[in-house]
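INFO  loader      accepted 1 record
INFO  loader      residues=260
INFO  predictor   begin
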Amino acid sequence: MRELTFGHSPCPNDTFAFHALTHGLVHTPLRVRPVLLDIEELNRRAHSGEFDLTKLSVGAFAAVGDRYRLLRSGAALGHGVGPLVVARREMTLQDAAAGRMAIPGRETTAYRLLRLAAPTLHDVVELRYDRILRAVEAGEVDAGLIIHESRFTYADHGLVKVIDLGDWWEQETHLPVPLAGICARADLDDETRAAADAAIRASVAYAFAHPEASRVYVRAHAQEMSEEVCAQHIALYVNEHSLDVGDEGLRAIQRLVGQG
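INFO  predictor   done
INFO  writer      dumping tokens
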């Protein structure tokens, strides 16, 4: 049985969706060893082809297209799932772009969307995604580009939404927001890539059929997150596109990759 390394995030949507695969609950000829890292760290490591399978921001696809190929299963995209720009007071996106903005990484899909919506943006500081809300709250930056569970908790920090970049993208393109996908190393043979795709699809299907099976595992990697936020996170980011990206999803990915 061949072992493949699988890089994905510790966020609830990933630990929920891939729990069955990484814990031997689906039938597959592959053995998978998970490595859990922040999405921007996964984007960075993809440049050296470190992992056999890895989650990647769609914003990073163009830069590593020679090393990885997108699988149809395991994607994170949909409607109402986009990143937000938040600030301490109400302002326009143009005002936010004129100030200092915290971002979760230059290769994230969120940053690519922001650059499309606010091309005059110039003063950015990279922070790990879970530090951005506090940086905005403390006045270290004028605004923040937030992803993951931060969209559910920014109001707890006294912050307000400047723009929902997912809504902006959907209005501009009439396509779902393509956040991330699972990619396999380009040098893996077709049979191995197909087996990985099938295994990930089976894992997502298992998660939908047995949502409580991964609960302890999900909570172990999200200890600072409430049960409610965990549930919201999973419900928003794990959907039918996680089973198969679909033709509409592929069009959305191609559109965003082509525009950055």
